[in-house]
């Protein structure tokens, strides 16, 4: 799988004119076009042209294939987000915060980092949402073990914060929460881009805080009798098979 070498975390949206090297130009251009048009809506030739690469084979030179390019984008961004997540968790622990909302903030705020910046346009959340629903992409398969460290820390904290929630339900709620966060932030990103074009204001901070409230409430929701009965049936099935 292709990797992006020594590319550093960009402090602002880079374009073909400001990225530090041609591979980063291509990667960021591809991320933007995939976010805007979908993963099957743009060709490698179009990406190279949009990135102002004179050599149409530049993408193949740097990444080898579309699959390797997608892998590079995902790994590049996941490493950034995981670093932010671990920084956030370290800060929360230093402050002695162990409440559920602090844990959920560690899930949401690293992904929302670009949305609250002064950058006029962001593309990663829309790219991530497009990758999430693509039938041929398994995001977990593209993540290195190190890039998952923040997620593992969050999950361990959730287990301690919600000790009465059955493990199977906690995992399901956690994965559903990740999907809700992904698609909500992608929508916020889309709204922000439109509002910027229209010179209109969007209260991004309120939208993100409200999303955090919603996720915390969903994770801590009361287990209904209907779900509990299904859980009892599932737990009883192995015993029946072994009897």
Mean pLDDT: 85
| Alpha plus pi helix count | 11
> How many E-type strands?
0
| Low-pLDDT segments, ≥5 res | 1-19
The biggest beta sheet reads: none
Class derived from helix and strand content: mainly alpha
Q: SSE order, as H and E? A: HHHHHHHHHHH
Inertia-based shape = globular
Spatial extent as radius of gyration: 20 Å
User: What separation lies between the terminal Cα atoms?
Assistant: 47 Å
Proportion in helices: 55-70%
- In terms of DSSP E residues, the strand content is under 5%
List keywords for this structure.
243 residues, mainly alpha, 0% strand, disordered N terminus
Characterise this structure.
With 243 residues, the protein is mainly alpha-helical. It has a domain at 77-242. It has eleven helices and no strands. It has helices spanning 22-37, 44-50, 58-62, 66-94, 100-112, 124-133, 139-142, 149-161, 167-197, 204-219, 225-242. α9 packs antiparallel against α10 (204-219). The longest helix has 31 residues, at 167-197. The relative contact order is 0.11. Mean pLDDT is 85; it is low at 1-19.
List the helices and strands and how they pair.
Elements: H1 22-37, H2 44-50, H3 58-62, H4 66-94, H5 100-112, H6 124-133, H7 139-142, H8 149-161, H9 167-197, H10 204-219, H11 225-242
What is this structure, in a nutshell?
Helix content is 67%, strand content 0%. The chain is mainly α. The model is unreliable at 1-19 (pLDDT under 50).
